[in-house]
């Protein structure tokens, strides 16, 4: 009961804030200016659609993204694949978590809690994007589970992009675009109840302070249980934002994100004999006393001055602080038990291995306890200039970035009697009588890791319009990344690294008509060994991994611009890849990884009442060269085929829709020892809309499909079962 008291108080505060906002709105004279999609932070291609003349519908389609050029850029002028997941799609799907929203991008696969990394772990085009998640253009490097309550959209830029974002971005970057204050009032509260004891409340309040100033506050609180036994999340968050000078030459935006999560960690099941341990979708391996507590604070300031229509100066600063307190238990190995003797079974495929029923097996548990503190302070200054050199038009962005990151990770071991460090003991594989602890467990202080990094960067990107049909995009960025790391127990005791790297970006765009765009692009990126301020021993002195991408694609706007069709063929090569040599514990840069692929996507309206969003991704991945026995293998968590599709149709006040996610077979780790089967999951929705309120029913996993969702490469591969059939009923009221 005591654990729920803070959450109950948070929910009460949210509703109180909503009522206060209602009172303020009633005291404020109504503005004569209507809220347009662009004012609300959107860039919808169609105007707002009034269904039966009563309710406003938001569009899935965006024709502008901020992720492709550091400023809002028309997607057809970005020579890379871009997916924009609009808030309208998230609302229609009932997608309140960052991970669920990203299921709309077929190039993304989900990871789960790692031994050294927790929070959102994402793969993009086969490569880890754990440190390539951004918030309003700044690296959001904290290890936490992100929510969508304050997001206007999520932008996915695919392909190496160090010229735009600095280190990392092998498969691309994911940028969260927060809701900004607008001139018109917004007063909206929502509540959700669902099966398996799910509760959520949220609000979005925008209060105009004058013709050129506004305050916006978003908030949420939730108490969510799932079809996975014992799993529950108790979270809340606030995101206030103040915008001054709207529509004037000088505009200032101040914003904050405050989020608190108390979640049950889920490491899923471990594998043996080449497959994940076959368990029911509700089976949990861990202790009921496990928890992951995360506190997030992000403060941002954006000052922009427009000298004239051709020259703009912008300065942005962001400070972020993340604190994680985790007591987590995972399945480590599967085996049989004879008294106090545990015999682990082979992880990989083993011909002749006897068959076992689940009730004959035991699971060894391991602790993953740590307290992590992350912080970042970054500043970017940009000059955006438009000018002509004869008949050639230029849009030049030049800028500088400085930043400092710090990292502290204090690990702890919980060890059972007779076990090696961090091993707790064994539990019956079939038992659902989950313990709160195992007997004779002692806790000891383990390694303390401290790290810091300083970044300095200079960059320039020019979009050159040669003619109405031809454009050239070119950019350079120089980064100096200086990092150091120390460990109290594990090796290395101390390491430091300074990397100087120049990233390039180039593209050619041919646009024979307003509805067609064809492009070729080339880009590079780099991954220092101390990129995440953690390191595998004997890799700290290695040169950075380098990546390059070739992509050719097309972007078509059909049906008078209401439906966007995108295609892309690409190849990403990771050179200087770190690989373990034949000498135990030694590493070199002798590895090479390659991913070839095809992507197709469609977003927009087929008819005024029929919206769609979907895509197909084909990925052929290969570890081309390695010295650790993985040469020729497929990259972990990289399916050959993946499909995402979502569609809704409005009929009067009613909205009907649904969609699916398909993913073919994947391997849980680069060793390819654990093979995870493919799956198709179907979701559905029905909604009733009125000017003052909406009522929506979402049904997730309609056919109650058993499938393995997020994968974890450690211990040769773990897999987390997906949720079973879940119903969500959401009511939204506007005042």
TrEMBL record:
One of its GO terms (cellular component) is cell outer membrane. Its main location: membrane. CDD domains: ligand_gated_channel. Residues 268-702 form the TonB-dependent receptor-like beta-barrel domain. It is a multi-pass membrane protein. It comes from the Bacteria. Residues 75-173 form the TonB-dependent receptor plug domain. It is found in: Cell outer membrane. Residues 1-25 form the signal peptide. Keywords: Cell outer membrane, Ion transport, Membrane, Receptor, Signal, TonB box, Transmembrane, Transmembrane beta strand, Transport. GO terms for molecular function: siderophore uptake transmembrane transporter activity; signaling receptor activity. GO terms for biological process: siderophore transport. Pfam families: Plug (PF07715), TonB_dep_Rec_b-barrel (PF00593). Belongs to the TonB-dependent receptor family. This is TonB-dependent receptor. It comes from Pandoraea terrae.
């Amino acid at each position: 009961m005591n654990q729920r008291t803070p959450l109950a108080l948070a929910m009460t505060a949210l509703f109180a804030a909503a009522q206060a906002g209602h009172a303020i709105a009633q005291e404020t004279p109504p503005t004569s200016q209507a809220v347009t999609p662009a004012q609300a932070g959107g860039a919808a291609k169609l105007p707002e659609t009034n269904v039966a003349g009563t309710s406003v519908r938001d569009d899935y389609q965006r024709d502008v993204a901020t992720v492709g050029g550091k400023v809002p850029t028309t997607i057809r002028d970005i020579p890379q694949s871009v997916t924009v997941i609009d808030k309208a799609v998230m609302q229609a799907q009932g997608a309140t978590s960052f991970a669920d929203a990203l299921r709309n991008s077929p190039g993304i696969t989900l990871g789960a809690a790692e031994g050294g990394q927790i929070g959102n772990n994402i793969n993009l085009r086969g490569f880890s994007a754990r440190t390539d998640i951004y918030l309003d253009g700044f690296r959001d490097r904290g290890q936490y589970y992100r929510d969508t309550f304050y997001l206007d959209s999520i932008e996915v830029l695919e392909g190496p992009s160090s010229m735009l974002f600095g280190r990392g971005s092998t498969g691309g970057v994911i940028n969260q675009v927060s809701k900004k204050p607008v001139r018109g009032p917004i007063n909206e509260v929502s509540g959700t109840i669902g099966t398996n004891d799910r509760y959520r409340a949220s609000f979005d309040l925008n209060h105009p302070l004058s013709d050129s100033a506004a305050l916006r506050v978003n908030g949420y609180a939730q108490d969510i249980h799932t079809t996975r036994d014992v799993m529950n999340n108790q979270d809340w968050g606030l995101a206030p934002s103040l915008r001054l000078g709207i529509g004037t030459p000088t505009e200032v935006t101040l914003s904050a994100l405050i989020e608190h999560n108390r979640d049950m960690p889920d490491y899923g099941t471990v594998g043996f004999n080449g497959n994940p341990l076959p368990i029911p979708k509700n089976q949990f391996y861990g202790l009921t006393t496990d928890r992951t507590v995360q506190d997030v604070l992000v403060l941002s300031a954006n000052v922009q001055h427009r000298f004239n229509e051709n020259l703009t100066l912008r300065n942005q600063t962001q400070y972020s602080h993340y604190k994680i307190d985790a007591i987590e238990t995972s399945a480590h190995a599967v085996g049989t038990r004879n008294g106090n003797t545990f015999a682990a079974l082979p992880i990989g495929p083993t011909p002749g291995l006897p068959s076992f029923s689940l009730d004959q097996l035991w699971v060894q548990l391991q602790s993953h306890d740590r307290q992590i503190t992350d912080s970042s302070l970054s500043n970017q200054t940009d000059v955006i200039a438009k000018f002509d050199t004869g008949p050639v038009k230029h849009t030049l962005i030049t800028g500088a970035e400085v930043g400092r990151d710090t990292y502290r990770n204090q690990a702890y071991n919980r060890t059972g009697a007779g076990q090696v460090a961090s091993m707790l003991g064994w539990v019956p594989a079939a038992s659902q009588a989950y313990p709160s602890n195992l007997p004779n467990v002692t806790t000891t202080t383990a390694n303390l890791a401290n790290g810091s990094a300083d970044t300095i960067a200079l960059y320039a990107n020019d979009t050159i319009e040669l003619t109405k049909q031809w454009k050239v995009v070119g950019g350079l960025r120089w980064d100096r990344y200086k990092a150091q790391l120390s460990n109290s127990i594990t090796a290395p005791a101390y390491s430091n690294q300074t990397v100087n790297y120049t990233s390039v970006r180039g593209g050619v765009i041919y646009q024979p008509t307003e509805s067609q765009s064809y492009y070729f692009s080339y880009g590079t990126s780099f991954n220092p060994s101390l990129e995440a301020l953690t390191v595998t021993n004997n890799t700290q002195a290695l040169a950075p991994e380098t990546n390059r991408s070739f992509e050719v694609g097309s972007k078509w706007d059909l049906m008078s611009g209401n439906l966007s069709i995108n295609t892309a063929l690409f190849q990403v090569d990771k050179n200087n890849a770190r690989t373990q040599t034949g000498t135990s514990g030694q590493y070199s840069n002798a590895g090479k990884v390659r991913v070839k692929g095809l992507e197709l996507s469609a977003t927009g309206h087929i008819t005024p009442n029929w919206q769609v969003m979907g895509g197909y991704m084909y990925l052929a991945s290969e570890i081309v060269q390695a010295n650790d026995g993985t040469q020729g293998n497929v990259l972990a968590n990289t399916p050959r085929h993946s499909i995402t599709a979502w569609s809704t149709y409005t009929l009067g006040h009613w909205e009907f829709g649904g969609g699916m996610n398909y993913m073919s077979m994947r391997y849980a780790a680069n060793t390819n020892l654990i093979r995870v089967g493919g799956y198709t999951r179907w979701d559905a929705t029905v909604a009733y809309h009125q000017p003052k309120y909406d009522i929506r029913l979402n049904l997730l996993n309609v056919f109650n499909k058993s499938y393995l969702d997020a994968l974890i490469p450690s211990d040769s591969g773990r897999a987390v079962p997906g949720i079973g059939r879940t119903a969500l009923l959401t009511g939204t009221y506007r005042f």
